[in-house]
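Would you mind giving me a polypeptide sequence along with per-residue structure tokens?
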Amino acid sequence: MDARTAELLGSALSASGPIVFLTGAGVSAESGIPTFRGAEGYWRVGSTNYRAEELATYEAFSRMPEEVWAWYLYRRGVCRAARPNAAHLALVDIERSLEARFLLVTQNVDGLHLRAGSSPERTYQIHGNIDFMRCEDEHPRVRPIPESIPFDWPKAHALGDVERAALRGCARGAWARPHVLFFDESYDEALFRFESTLRAMKEAAALVVVGTSGATTLPAHAVDLAVRRRIPLVVINQDQSPFTEAAGRSPAGHVLLGTAGQHLPPIASFLRGAR
């Protein structure tokens, strides 16, 4: 780990407030999970190819729930076949070092952080979790996808009677929906920890951004708060992005070009030693 990162994290340790780690698709990519915005994101319904941005919407789910569910079950199978990587394990190590001062905010819906050992209490899954579904009644109920639906869902496979029955378990036989934030939906507190994330950033001693380009609203708010508050801001990414540019503008910012698996283990080692 370089001297500038050590300086910024050392400064954060001597201050008060949480040290927030914000993760995105780059962390999951190191476990072999595609972003689904490229070729892997296409899904054929009849004679039409849909992109992820078209399928992962409430509008599409309202119009063709079976087809959207089939795509999400395939995605779930890809996620379940993946294993936590060095970056996930480093964050577990960091949580052990920081204890109550640790907060993980993840955009990833694959559940790999929790499978690696990050605690649910200190992990805000701000885009949901693909292993869960919910009913949209007055009090949305989030629960695991039933065990009757296999993890190894084949690509382009249609729902059968068993799957339909399992996924239509809401009031009056209504469809449950994947517990994810669709592209045409907004964050809220009850399901996606919107206010909790912003509140944590208003108190944070530092923000470490890992493997995300800054394309969604809540992470952008978090980085903006870090810059305006002039707290340490470390951005780990393989490429330049709006977040690396933000770190470059901040007097307390620093950019580490490379992968999460390259940079998070040395940070974990540093924080373990500081403890």
Q: What stands out?
A: The chain is about 45% helix and 20% strand. The mean pLDDT is 93.
